[in-house]
Amino acid sequence: MKPYSLLWTWAASRVLGASWIAPGAVWTDSDGNKIDAHGGGVVKRGDTFYWVGHAASSKSPS
């Protein structure tokens, strides 16, 4: 029984650990790009949530 408990604990920590919000952390989209959204909101379509907002950039226009 103990090996199953250890496996369950490890699996739960992997799943639940991914759901934490860490203030100040860099958030990335599903392609690994940094999310830089201002004035955003969350929209749900079906079972999928989308974060929609204004993309801000520190690059100067050329």
Strand sequence of the main sheet, in spatial order?
1-2
- Please summarize the sheet with the most strands: 2 strands, antiparallel
Number of strand elements: 2
Q: Can you give the mean pLDDT?
A: 73
Backbone shape: elongated
Structural class, from secondary structure content? alpha+beta
Give the % helix.
25-40%
Termini separation (Å)?
64 Å
Helical region count? 1
Q: What is the CA-atom radius of gyration, in angstroms? A: 18 Å
Taken in chain order, the helices and strands follow as HEE
Query: In terms of per-residue confidence, which ranges show pLDDT below 50 for 5 or more consecutive residues?
Result: none
Q: β content, as a range?
A: 25-35%
Task: List descriptors.
two-stranded antiparallel ribbon; 2 strands
Provide structural commentary.
- It is a single chain.
- Helices cover 26% and strands 27% of the residues.
- By secondary structure, it is α+β, with helices and mostly antiparallel strands.
- The protein has a domain at 26-54.
- A two-stranded antiparallel ribbon has the order 1-2.
Question: How are the SSEs placed, and which strands pair?
Answer:
Elements: H1 2-17, E1 37-45, E2 48-55
Write a compact overview of the structure shown.
With 62 residues, the protein is an alpha+beta fold.
